[in-house]
Each structure stands twice: as C-alpha cells, then as structure tokens.
Amino acid sequence: MDSHMQETIKTTLAEIKSKTNISTQALEHALIITYRLLDSKLESDYNLCLSSICHIANLKHTDRMVQQLLHDCIIKSRVFLYNNLLSTTTPSYSPEFSAQDSILQNFYTSSKTNTTLTKPQKEVFDAFQRERRLIVSAPTSFGKTRIIREIISANDYKRIALIMPTVSLLSEQYQDIKSNIEGFTVSKSSKVKIKPDEKYILVLTPERMSAFLDENPEFAVDFFVMDEIYKTDYKLNDDRYKVFSDILYRLAKQSTHFYLIGPYISDFSSRFRERFNAKFIRFDLEIVQKDYYKLDGIKNNGHHTIEDGNIRITKNKYTNFSRIISQPSVDGKFLVYRYRKQYVEDTAKSLADSKNEKEHNRDLVDYLANSISHDWDLINCIKRGIGFHHGGMPRHIQDLIVDEFNDNSKTGLDYLFCTTSLTEGINSAAKNVVIYDKNMGTGDTLGTLDRKNIEGRAGRFMQHFIGRIFYLETDDREDQDSVIEIEYLDKTKPDIETLLQLDHHDIPHEQIDLHNSFLDRVSNLNIPDSLIRSNRFVSAEGQIRLIQYLRSTNKNYTIEDQYIKKEIQSEILSIIFDFLFTEKDKGKSFNNEVGKSILIQLTNYYVYHKPPFKLMLTSNTVKGQRKTENARIRYVFDLFTKYFEFTWPKYIKAFENLYNFTAIEKGRSPIHLDMLVAQLEYGTTKPHEIILRDTGLPNEIIGKISDFYKECKTFEDVQRVTQEQRRAISKGIHTIESKVIDKYL
Question: What Pfam families does the record tag this protein with (predicted)?
Fold first, then answer.
C-alpha cells in the first residue's frame, strides 16, 4: 500500500516539475495520499511528504479545498511554520484551524522561548535531554542552531561555550543568545573577567576558545556546542582542523554535556563516540526542498525545460549561465560557486559588464571606495546588483556583502559569487545555487560533503518552499560517505604534534610506542617535551632543528622595553621562516628567497609604520608583485588575514619560547615578543583595542572610536560604553562603520 502511495506522490511531483497543467482534483488526491503517508515511520516517506507539501504550496493555489488539505498535511507533518510562509506567499490562504491544531502546535512551542519547533527539531531536543552528549547531522535549513537556546533554557547550566567556525556565525549566534537568554554574562571575546558566582556563555571561535582556556585553566564548562563539526576531520588537511579537534578534546574530557552539529555527515568517529559516550543521530530530510538541473555543456547539451521556459545548453559555460539567469520564470537570488578567488571575481565582473547600473547601497560603495580602492571591481559589481565573497576578504567586508545579498529591497544584491567560503555557515537568501565548477580550490574534484554543503544553500526556510540547484559541470561518481574521523583516534600514524597535546591515559594503545620514542629522542637531546608541547601544532621537527641552531650560534638578541630594532626583527623573522614555516605556509607567493625577503619587508613595514589597508595597497613593493589593482587587493588581503593575523603570531610565540629556553641554558637574559605578536595579530598593542579587535571589528574602525573605550578592561566594559555612548560614537564615523559596530558589539 505504501509503495502505491509513494508512486502517486512521485507522479504528481513529476507533473508539477514539468509544468504539466495539473488538475485541482489531482492535487487534492495527492494531498490526501500525502496525509495518509505521513503515518509512515520511514524518514524517506516523511521527506517525500515534505516534498509534496512544498511543491504544492509553491503553486500558490487558490482553491479552498487544496488549501485546507495542504493545511491539514502541514499540521500532521509538524512543520507548523510552513503555514506562516504560505500566509505570506498566498494572500488568499485562509484554512480553518481546529482546536486540535492549536493544541498540537502548542505542544511543539517552548513555554520559555516561545519558539515553535518542527517535528525533527523536537526529536533532536528530546534526544539531547535523554543522552546529554549528542552529535547531530542534518541538512542546511534544518534549524540545528535554533535548538541551542532551547537546550540552554531547559537546563541549569552555569558555564557554557558555543564554538563557531567564523566571526559571521559567531556574531549571529551571539545576537540570538543575547536577545533570548537571560541571567548570563554573554561574551564573544576571550578577554572576559571570570567571577566565581556568575553564569557565563562564551561565544568564540576555536582559536579564541583555545586562548581563553590557556588564560583560564580552572574554568570548567558544563555544556558546549560546536557548529560545523566536520571541521574536526583530519582528512580535511587544512590549517584549522587541528585547532578544532584540540578544542573538542579539551572540552569533551571535562565530563561536560555537549551538542555537536554539522550538515551531511554520514557518521562520526566511532572511537570518539565510545570514548566520550556520545550518541550520533543523522537526518537526511530537507525542510526546504530542492529541484536539481544537470546542465553540463558536454554531457547534457541540447534543450532543457526550466520552470515555464526552455533553454539550449551549449559547450560554453558562461553562455549557459547567462541563459539560466535570463529565464523570466527562474525567480529569486543566485549564489554562484566558483573554485578560485580570481575566477569568482572575474566571472562577477563579466556579468557586471553586461548589466546596467541599478539602485544600490551608495553608502557601501562610498565606504569600500574610501577604505579599500576606488578601482576595486567589487564596487562596479555592487552598482549592478552583484557581489563576490571569498576567504581572502576581511570578515567584516564578507559580512557586509552577505547582508546586501540578503536584503530583499530593490537596492539589494541579486547575485553572489563565492568560493567554498559560502559553505561555512553563511545564511543567505539564495533561492538558486549554481555550481559553476565541479572542482575545489586545490584542483581536485569536489567531495560529497563539500558539494552537498554548497547545494544546501539553495532555498532558505521561511522564505522559500523550493530551492533550485543548477550544475554547469557534473561529476558522475557516486556519493561517498562522509565519515568524520579524529586524528589521534582514527589516523594510522597521527602527527606527533597531535599526540603531544593528549593526556597520557588518552593516547591510544597503538600510538604509545610512537609517542614514547619521541619523548626518548627529545630527552636524549636535553629538550623537555613540555617545551615542544607548549607550542601547539608547530612542527616538532622544526622546533628541534631551531633549538639546535640556537644552541650552536652566539647570537644574543637585546630587546629593551619590548622595542625591537628593525635589523633584529628581520633576523628573527628570517630564522622563523627557515625553521618553522611549512611549504603550505609559504604558498606560491613566498616559496623562495625572493619571496621570503618580500614577506619580511612587508611585515616590517606593517609593524613599524602601521599602514591602513589602502596605504599598504599603494606601496611600491606590493605594486611590484601584482600588475592589476584587483590582484593587488587579493594579495594584501592575504597578507593581512593569513600572515599578519595568524601565521607570524603563532610562530613568533614559538620562537620566543625556544629562544628563551636556550638563552637560560647559556645564562643569558630572556626576550619578550608580546608587543610584536599583538601588533601583528591584532594590529595594536593597546589592551582595550585588543578587546575590540577580538569582537571582529577591523582596525580602521577601531582607530576612530578607540578613545571612547580607553578605560575598558573587559568585554563587559566595552558593551557598557557602547550602550552609553552609542550616539556620540556614531557621529564621527561612516554609516557603514556604524552598521559594523552594531553587528559586532
């Protein structure tokens, strides 16, 4: 019987998608069958029913019986907010609500937060209340983060950590918690003063959480959340997975409750689940349904029906893209994936060249022209309703562009071109996702997890019933399982840097010999393993070679009052580059002696002259490295976000530890490089400005508002001053800068 119902619904969906002139009677019949199939316990049947509801709701049908049946299916599906969206999209929608309908909805509505959960969300919440250590895989638009405040409201936690992968998600979660949860000190800065009897919610990136735990080793968390948990997987082989997995380990071993969430995960390390007694739940259903169009110019050339129109697909990808977005019935905004930063910008520029100027956010254009460059292609793009976004751009500019894309007014952006930066939890208003390339930045083919993450951005709950996904290149390989594996538990030979961070009793039995042989080796070299361990995830071999070099040289660095002479700083940076930089750190720009010299020269210029972005952009050295303005902008963005703020500070801290160890051996005075680290990592050495920088504010804005905050010692002080002086602060800055302050503070 179920198979007959499934076929009936699938047939109706196929007719709807092909734009067949389907009868009212057929829709009514499909909804009756949908109502019956909702009794099934199978997730695949439930997802099919949601597809039926979404596709029929998307028709905006005015027939009263169709509307009533649709309403009854929505109530039975327990995704009550579909009704709210229908009321917005279909003004004539006015079904009868029974008393039973209201009772059911109230059952799914929190008495504390007044949030109405979907059926799957309530299943997650109930599972957490039972298990207390829960890992959840669910698609985008499921509402995984919405459950966080329900968990906090329902439990008596006192010290909570919410670990978010990006400043954008961090700020969004911070605002949500701040607005809906009372009784806690909520901080998005690691610079927060801890009082024994107060309750805290820390909303931090993994890097900032690591710094906080190092400074507050006695702080015991009783509940933590990690979003985008797939970033702990060692197979990602990026610069951050070690930090993510380290924070997961440090928090989980505190015998705390946790809620780990991420999209499209097939399974999570069985050894981790066993070690920490965690439950894994996987959902594959889509609250916002998807329609897929394979329009590969090689494999699928010819005519294709899309909505009410017909387009011809050729071997030219850009022509195919232009035809898709020119189709009048393909409504909504477009998120376009390209696999390299330059391709993102070039394709956005090509589209902008074909469009006329439209109403746009003139304040944003003015701000970008004055703070970055009048000749930046992004400015011309914005004027034509187009934006681009990639990981090399400063976070506050990325956020401003996403905000413009999510703006549904006539000045908002219609197109947003992105790299995989769009997969990192960007909540966008895109109805359409175009997968322009089947590759990723390394040139390899997109993996299943990355591809699904991109696809998941099509359609946003409470804005769309249906999202569309267009493939301009396709990969015929079958989907692979996305099993998240933790390095120290699941990798055959984990890096020694990872094993060193573990408590001895947590080192897997099969890794004990590897760990102990390293300890014996450094012991024979008279190097404490605690020294190597203190420099988290800096190459152990590089550290050993650097110690041996420092022992063999008679160099004695004299630094007075933390002021470093330029020639000494250059020598220190050179040594760090030679001994601690990996090939990935050097990249293509700085992978030889000339590149090394240029990087050190630009770093010195930044430290000693503190140039704003625009001045750095116009330096002769930068002009000599890149021919075009846009290439120079990408180059300087990379300098700031990768080298100044991340790579150099990590290695300078390690150098200081290693140099001082050898200096003490020789009876010499230690050196202190804290000011250099702060100047690079934060762009300032002033404590109150470091707190402001910790929130995500850029240095250009901080420089204008610094005097208001000079007495601030903690993030709470910053919040208080912001509230008290908001009007005065806004008077001296650009309107866009006021918007950034409102978002981050």
Answer: DEAD, Helicase_C
